[in-house]
Amino acid sequence: MPGLLIFSMSLAASQDIAVIQLRNRPAEDLQPLLLPMLNGSDSLVPNHMQLIIKADPATIREIRGLVEQLDRRPHRLLISVAQGTAITAESLNGGIGVGAGPGGGVRVQGGISASARQGNSRASQFVQTVDGQPAMIQAGQDVPFRQGYGYGYGGVVYEPVTTGFAVTPRLLGQGEIEIAVAPWSDNLNQGVISTQSAATRVRAPLGAWVEIGGLSQSRVSSGYGPGYASRQESGHIFLKVDDQDAGQP
After folding, report:
1. I want to staple 180 with a disulfide (CB 3.0 to 4.6 A). Which of 4, 53, 125, 168 is the partner?
2. Does residue 77 or residue 73 have the better pLDDT?
């Protein structure tokens, strides 16, 4: 028992307490990015523009180094989402860009487009936000549906049919981004609304399209006689983040 007590005291004695003063970003924004660097007995407490850390000296030095990279003026980020039935990351990365003008300037803050042809549909959205801040964009319409109550009485209700996404991006340094994203896409077909959606958190390289989700459906229809028809449909969801202030501190 005395030996165990001495070991516990020496372990606690090896930890230091440090206060890191931040200049640009609140401590609550940086805390999730720094927690993976802590060990079991370490602690990190955010306090407005300060980080209070209890850890061994080597861990504190590593955290200080990462904070120097992360504690900068929030960059503007342009987030693009593409959803479609016949698109791939290779085709998107082959030269499709959204929103950047000559010299890296931004033409617009947000937008949406859609296209469709036989066997191939695609919708794309883009929105500008700043590092660490959530953003959302959606577009669509309210579609009327008639409800019947019998004996010729009825009414009309409106259901939203929209496409969009909600996203929170965080720059990690070294050309990487962490993204919490929830895109969705509604489709109206013969009076039926179908929705494709995903919710995930991913790490990805800046400026590259990555697939974050998809949906595959099989439909079988039959008519008179022994014949029937089947159709396979698949949708894919891709995301890209561009740093509009790349190269700036």
Report:
1. 168
2. 77
